[in-house]
Amino acid sequence: MEEFVPFASRSYGLMFLLLFFSRGMDFLSTWVATPNMVLEGNPIAKKLGWKWGIPLNCGLCFGFAFWPLPAIVISTTSVLVASRNFQSAWLMRSLGEQLYRDWYVERVQETSITLYLFCLFAQTALTGGVGAAVICFSEWRLVPLAIGLGIVAYAIAVAFYTLLGIWRLRRSAILCARLAERSLALERPQPAPRNNGKAIAIDGPTVIQPQGK
Questions:
Q1: b/e for 117-134, b at 16 or more Cβ within 10 A?
Q2: What is the pLDDT of residues 57-74, one digit of tens each?
Q3: Domain range annotation of the chain
Q4: How large is the angle between the packed helices 43-64 and 68-95, nearest 10 degrees?
């Protein structure tokens, strides 16, 4: 394949169908897992939502179909993301988006952050290693090179968005802890004011004592 392909050519049609299928699978897997975008890890996609995300990705398919290298990279990354989404989509749907989110947050909070990060980096490093091996043995041929780059891009995306989610989770937990401390401080009873080391009596109901004779 050439660096760029002409519009409406066979290569252009092939790249467009490849992009359309891969991006479609990414969207389908996201919709199955989180139809309200509650669990969407990409903040840009979450902000765009379905209304703007679908036409934007259609434009992406039309645009990048001219350029086979990024088209194959994007397609490879998209199908791997879709596969990852489908892996847990049934659990997200059965529990519900909010309940699954709360359950997942609890599991993360109960896990050592060192263990969590070790497993994350081991997963992404092994996946990225496969992509790097494909690149090394591609002999700079377009298709295997682009597939290898797509695998590496997928590993980087998983690491980045997972770390972003963990950072936001920890920031939210710290904020909630500070708010709880402030609320507790406001609810504590204040000590009675003192004057020269003696407590000042606080006015209360007057009790008449009987007089002795």
A1: eeeeeeebeebbeebbeb
A2: 999 999 999 999 999 999
A3: 10-183
A4: 140
